[in-house]
């Protein structure tokens, strides 16, 4: 290690710790880190936490800032224009991509942006007709539950006029703009129909929007198909054929506008279930939520307490905030998370009391740690309130807790406690089977079985399977909310660039 430098240090007497940022360089990469020392008496200091994070590969630096392209290359007399060059690049007419990314959501596009800046030929494919359709086609009330300061994409932060909580159609249009602004190579209306790995790379068959097929050779495939994958978890409830109403999974729910005056049952109590229940209620449906197990709830306003000074108008640059936020090991942050969870509950006291009165079953997360560990370990089980909790508290959305749907009847559902709910529409907000099952659908059982688990913490307290090598050579998983994808996507991009 060479060039070690302490660039910033802070001493906090109340907490008895020293925090410092460091930078260093090896023959392979340039890196940075966060170091914390702690003391019980103010005299003897011991190492507490140390995070080191690679920023760039030596010899494969990102083409940004002073390394950005000149832009006058297309002015050579008789040479191709910029538009002609981009068309050839986008269609890969002069060679196959190094990396094929399946999924043009924020995860896939952010990764492609980093790889493209590193000179790694990257193709992103998506089965939707337009980039952003994975948001655009969802129910109208959907919006991000995290604030704008937390959600910036790599290289292109949201404008300062952007709303705090982004509506889904606005995000969809931004993703489409992101592709154009960053010169990403994306094929929409395209599906992977076959893929085999021979030890050195993948032979892939893609079906294009016009029905044609394209065979490609790529060293790496990345599945960026969402945190939970694309395979909907749809419980097989007896009597469905006899039900005279309509059943949707949350992934196909068209929105509440067509259900005014109808009786709706929403099965589930996570973010999607709450959003859908709220959307139905706002459009005049009579809504009952079936809550099978308890849920952690925090308001969007209270959750901002956990980001105060880091992701807000007073916070540091996003890259600094990301590094600081990641610098506590997942398993070492328990006490701090429990304390913050308690503070947020105090701020939400009136809201939570209202939920209790309505019979909604709450918890405070895994071992009192709120939403974070639920997300990392289970991928759900929480709700960041943007309005539905108030509707539950005032009775606009009814709730039946501690029960499940046993079977359908002609005019409703029978619950596990023997009671019945009349229904014209049932929405199953029951989640997805996970990213490995998406790999199984696209690439077969042998590949999926080799991957190993994705998400959840391993014995070292690190996330399994995502942003790191899997048991299947050449296959990677990319996911996370916008902030996690932005930060950890860099490390996946560095690994791919080093091996491309």
UniProtKB/TrEMBL annotation:
Keywords: Oxidoreductase. The keyword Glycoprotein does not apply. Pfam families: Pyr_redox_3 (PF13738). InterPro entries: Auxin_biosynth/cation_transpt (IPR050982), FAD/NAD-bd_sf (IPR036188). It comes from the Bacteria. Signal peptide: none annotated. SUPFAM superfamilies: FAD/NAD(P)-binding domain. PANTHER family: FLAVIN-BINDING MONOOXYGENASE-LIKE PROTEIN (AFU_ORTHOLOGUE AFUA_4G09220). This is Flavoprotein involved in K+ transport.
């Amino acid at each position: 290690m060479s060039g070690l430098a302490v660039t910033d240090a802070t001493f906090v007497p109340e907490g008895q710790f020293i925090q410092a940022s460091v930078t260093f360089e090896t023959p392979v990469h340039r890196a940075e880190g966060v170091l914390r020392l702690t003391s019980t008496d103010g005299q003897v200091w011991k190492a507490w936490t140390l995070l080191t994070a690679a920023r760039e590969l030596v010899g494969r630096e990102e083409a940004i800032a002073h390394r950005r392209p000149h832009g006058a290359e297309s002015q050579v007399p008789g040479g191709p224009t910029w538009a002609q060059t981009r068309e050839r690049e986008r269609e890969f007419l002069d060679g196959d991509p190094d990396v094929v990314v399946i999924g043009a959501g924020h995860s896939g596009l952010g990764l492609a942006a980093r790889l493209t800046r590193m000179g790694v030929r990257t193709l992103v494919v998506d089965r939707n007709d337009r980039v952003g359709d994975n948001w655009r086609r969802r129910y109208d009330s959907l919006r991000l539950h995290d604030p704008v300061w937390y959600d910036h994409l790599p290289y292109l932060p949201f404008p300062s006029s952007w709303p705090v909580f982004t509506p889904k159609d606005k995000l969809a249009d931004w993703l489409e703009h992101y592709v154009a602004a960053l010169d990403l190579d994306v094929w929409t209306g395209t599906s992977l129909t076959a893929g085999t790995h021979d030890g050195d790379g993948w032979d892939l068959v893609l079906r294009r929007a016009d029905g044609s097929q394209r065979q490609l050779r790529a060293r790496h495939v990345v599945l960026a198909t969402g945190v939970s994958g694309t395979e909907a978890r749809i419980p097989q409830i007896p009597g469905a054929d006899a039900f005279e109403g309509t059943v949707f999974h949350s992934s196909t729910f068209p929105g509440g506008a067509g259900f005014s005056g109808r009786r709706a049952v929403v099965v589930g109590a996570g973010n999607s279930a709450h959003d859908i229940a709220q959307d139905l209620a706002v459009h005049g449906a009579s809504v009952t939520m079936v809550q099978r197990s308890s849920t952690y709830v925090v308001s969007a306003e209270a959750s901002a307490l956990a980001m105060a000074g880091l992701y807000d108008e007073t916070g540091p640059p996003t890259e600094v905030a990301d590094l600081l936020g990641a610098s506590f090991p997942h398993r070492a942050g328990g006490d701090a998370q429990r304390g913050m969870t308690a503070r947020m509950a105090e701020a939400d006291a009136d809201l939570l009391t209202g939920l209790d009165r309505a019979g909604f079953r709450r918890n405070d997360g895994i071992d009192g740690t709120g939403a974070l560990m639920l997300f990392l370990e289970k991928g759900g089980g929480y709700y960041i309130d943007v309005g539905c909790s108030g509707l539950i508290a005032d009775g606009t959305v009814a709730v039946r807790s501690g029960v499940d749907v046993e079977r359908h009847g002609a005019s409703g559902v029978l619950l596990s406690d023997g009671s019945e709910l009349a229904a014209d529409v049932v929405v199953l907000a029951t989640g997805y089977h996970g990213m490995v099952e998406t790999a199984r659908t696209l690439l077969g059982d042998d590949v999926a079985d080799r991957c190993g688990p994705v998400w959840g913490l391993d014995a070292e307290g690190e996330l399994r399977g995502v942003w790191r090598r899997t048991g299947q050579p050449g296959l990677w998983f990319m996911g996370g909310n916008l902030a996690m994808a932005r930060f950890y996507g860099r490390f996946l991009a560095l690994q791919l660039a080093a091996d491309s």
